[in-house]
Structures are given as structure tokens and as C-alpha cells.
Amino acid sequence: MISLILIVFVSLFFTGLISRTKSLLSGRKGPGIFQPMRDIFRLWKKGSVYSVTTSFIFQIAPTVYIASVLMAILMVPFGNKPGLISFDGDFIMFAYMLALGKFLMIISAFDTGSSFEGMGASREALFSMLVEPAFFVLIGSFALFTGHTSFLEIFSELHYGTQISYLLGGLASFVLIMIAMVENSRMPIDDPKTHLELTMIHEVMVLDNSGFDLGLIMYTTNLKFAMYGAVIANFFIGMFPLGVSIPMFLIIQAGFAITVGIIESFMARFRMGHNPQFVYILTSVSLLIFFGVLLVLGKFA
Amino acid sequence: MTDILLIALAMTLLYISIASRLNTYLNILIFQGFILFGVTFLTLTKISTVNLILIMLETIVFKAIAVPLFLKHIIKRNRITRDSEPYLPNFISLIIVTFITVATILLASSIKVANLDKTFFVVALSTIFTGLYMIVTRKKIISHVIGYIIIENGVFVLSLAVGNEMTMMVNLGIMLDIFASVLILGIFFNRIGDLLKDPDIDQLRNLKD
Fold first, then answer.
1. Exposed (0-12), middle (13-18) or buried (19+): which is B81, by Cβ within 10 Å?
2. SS3 call for A201
3. Helix, strand or coil, per DSSP, at residue A78
């Protein structure tokens, strides 16, 4: 229960912190931290316009998207306190809940009949496909390391003894930060501010959504960011008592937002042909992490 | 700590497979030289001090400083263009190098020799095969030389695994380094550079009569 409250709380400020960091690094003062939420509230008061070429899928997709992300958040624990849903192997259900939401968004983009949206949707499908083995190999390595298969038990038993386990923890956070950048369509994979349709990936899928639906989709982006930040923070707060772990959680989330802002300010988006190899290298690094876990456990002589 | 450095060496192999400029290859060679310096310092604790200092100087001076500087000089002198001109796209190279690493891990785990230090074995074999892969899939002659130096780094790691018992093996590896870099690179490559304008292995056909 506490993870749900904290993640929803952080999601109100996350995107605002990112755009504030980007503005400060460009030399301006920028909008307030709460400004993206004010935009979302304004969108929630409006009605939606549905095109005549779309079917019922276009109308239900944003709702299913936010519902799947909320269900996935219910499974994320907070250190050694479980989420509302917790069972053995729940990290697999976590990944596939997110995939269900993404699938509905992709087919609703195809539903509009516009060729730009179809192009962006197929790119989004490619990058998600390339990132999926990275996530599974990473969480699987840590499941092997601790000997349990549920999110809660993995994070509550994760302790860093030897030097190499610190290296593995650091590498795992790096891979998770990159996975979060790919799944949320930020730089250096996708530029959220580009207006050229041929170069958009996620933004072009939501070109035809308006009003309440667009507000739902924008809020879901914030929720996904906060959720990935919670999974990253869980790698480090497993063994501390509640009084220490809540401030650490907030600090790690703020650090994550500032890191995203810094990466967005200083890197341009990669050429579209270079994106698949950038995403696939996460899988290769996860395989090396798996090898490192085998070394630590001594299963590798 | 040795394991950490060896895993960092395996990660540089992944980076080489997707890099597209020749200068990036040379920077990775410098980084590998420093990693090998660290690994030598931590592993070879039972040989005499003179031998140890000789080997450590060899890794720093040759692998990290002299050979990359010499290659940069050759690139500038023969006006070789920056691109590395692979035959296969970089994405396929990355998949193949990952497959090489996984295959060496599987191979090493099915060998039942008692005294073999598996980390050294895995990293050395993957370095050797990745260097071989680099030679096979690149068009420029200078990339073949860089691939050969990567193979030498792999052989060096393998010789470190037994370095405490057989110092002669490590010294022989060093002599191989000096021979390859100074004689083959320096003399051979300068002569070819004088003859061909833009070194390319297709143009080596010009050398036959």
C-alpha cells in the first residue's frame, strides 16, 4: 500500500522536475514543478473528439493503458513491504501487464488509418521487443542471486557483500535507467519535442487523441516514470527501516529525474538506424551481469 | 577485483563491435592496455620483482601508449578516412559478439579441468574470437591490424592465468607483441602505404604481377 501512495505522489512532480532541470541547464528559469499536472487537469476537463475512421479500439485504448500501468504499480514492493499484489513469479506478470497496455496503444495507432501513426507504432514495437530480453535477464539474474522469484523477496533479501556485487548493483541500475529511457520514449532514443513526423516514435502514436484521453495518456507517462524509479530505488533500500528508506526513496527518484533532465539537455537523439543496436546492447550487458552473478554464486568455479 | 577488471574487458569487446570510427578502436585499445596493467598487478604476485616490473612496463608502454600512438601516426600519414567500413551492419556484429561471449561461457562451464581459472579462460577466448571476427568483417587493412592486436591481448590474458607458475610463457607473449608491432606494423605497413593510395584489401590484388 505504501508503495502505491509514494509512487502516485512522486508522479505528480516527476515530469515537472525534468523540464525544470532542462530549463535551468539552458539558462532560463522555466515553468514551475507542478505545471505539467496543471496541463493534465486542463485536458481532463475537456471532451474528446473521435475520428470516423476509428473503431471501438481507439476509444478504449487509453483507458486500458492507464489501467494496465496502475495494475503493474500494485505489484511493485517498497523495500521489504509488499505491494498489494505479490506472488511467486510476479515480475513476469509485471512485464506482461505493461506489454498489454503498450499493445493496445499500438493497435489504436494503427486503427486511425494514418500512415505516420502506423510507422511510429511499428518502431515502438521494435524497441520494446529489443528491450524485453534485457529486463528479463536482469531480473532473472537477481532472482538467481537471492534464490527467490517474487519481487518482494528479491528486494528484501538483496544484500551487497563482496566487491563484485557492488559492481553488479551499479551495472543493474545503469541498465534499468536505460530501459526506463527506452520505455518512456525519451532521449537518446526518441525526442519528445520534435515536430517532424518522420522522426517521432511515441508522440506520433497519440497524434489523434484529444481531450480526456490525451490527459490520461500524458498522466500515464508520468506514472510509468515514477514506477521505474521505484524499481530502481528498490535495489538500494531493501535493508533499511522505514524512517530511512522513505527519504532515500524520494532522493533517488529526484536524482533519477535530474539525471533524465541532464541526459536530455546534453545528448541529441541517435540516428534512427543506430537505435536498435543501442537498445540491444542493454541485453548484452545484462548477459554479462548474469555471468557476474554466476561468478559470485560460485556456480562457475 | 580481478573479476571486475576482466568483466570490464568483456564489455569493451561489446563496444568495439558497434563502434564506427577508427579513433574509437584506438581509444578502446588504450583502455584495454590499462585494464591489462591492473590485472597483471593483481595476479602475478609470486614471481620475482624484476620480471614483474618488466611485464608491467610492457603493458603500459607498449599496449597503452606506443602502439596506439603509432597507429594514429600511420592513419594520419596515409590519410586513411575515419570510417571503419564493415561488411556487415553494426547491429549484426553486436549480436554475433554477444553470441561469441555466451558460447565461450557455455564452453567453459562444460570443461572439467580442476585447476583452470574459468574467468580468465572465458574472457581470453572471447577476446581472441572477437579479434578474429574483426579481422574477417572489415574492409580496411588497418582494421585487420587492430583485430590482430586484440587477439594478442586475449593471448596475454590467457598467459596471465598461468603466469605465476610459468614466467617464460608470459615473457614469450611479450616478445610476440614487440615483434608484431615493430617489425610487421612499422616496416610492412609503411611500404604498402607508399604504394597504394587508399588501403583496401581489394586493392591488394594490385600487388601481384
1. exposed
2. coil
3. strand
Q: Which residues of A touch B (CB under 8 A)?
A: 163-164, 167, 274, 276-277, 280-281, 283-285, 287-288, 291-292, 294-295, 300-301
CA dist., res. B188 & res. B190, Å (int): 6
Measure in Å the smallest separation between the Cα of A224 and chain B Cα atoms: 28
How far is the C-alpha of B196 from the C-alpha of B198, rounded, in Å? 6
The CA distance from B90 to B20, in Å, is: 8
Domain ranges within chain B, ordered by starting residue: 2-207
Interface check B94 vs A, CB under 8 A: yes
Q: What is the mean pLDDT of residues A26-45?
A: 91
Lowest-confidence range among A49-58, A92-101, A195-204, B140-149?
A195-204
* Phi, psi angle pair for A216, to nearest 5°: -60, -45
Q: How far is it, in rounded angstroms, from Cα B177 to Cα B186?
A: 13
Using CA atoms, how far apart are residues A114 and A209, in angstroms rounded to an integer? 13
Placement of cell 501512495 in the chain: A5
Contact B3 A164 (CB under 8 A): yes
* A17 CB-near residues (< 8 Å, 6+ apart): A33, A254, A257, A258, A261
Asked if B95 has any chain A CB less than 8 Å from its own CB, the reply is yes
For A246-274, the pLDDT digits (tens) are 888 999 999 999 998 998 888 888 887 78
Strand, coil or helix: B77: helix
Q: What is the Cα–Cα distance from A187 to A179, expressed in whole angstroms?
A: 12
Q: How far is A168 from chain B (nearest CA, A)?
A: 9
Q: Provide the CB-side half-sphere exposure for B185 (13 A, CA).
A: 25
| Three-point CA angle A145, A250, A267, nearest 5° | 85
- Name the residue in chain A with its Cα closest to that of B98: A284
ipTM of the prediction greater than 0.90, yes or no: no
Mean of per-residue pLDDT scores for chain A: 86
d(CA A45, CA A212): 7
Mind listing the pLDDT tens digit for each residue in A95-144? Answer: 999 999 999 999 999 988 888 888 888 888 888 898 899 999 998 888 88
pLDDT band at B124 (very low <50, low <70, confident <90, very high): very high
Give residue-wise pLDDT tens across range B36-81: 888 888 887 777 777 778 778 877 888 888 888 888 888 887 778 8
Strands (DSSP E) along A220-291, which ranges? none
d(CA A96, CA B119): 35
Q: Highest mean pLDDT range out of A43-57, A231-245, B42-56, B160-174?
A: A43-57
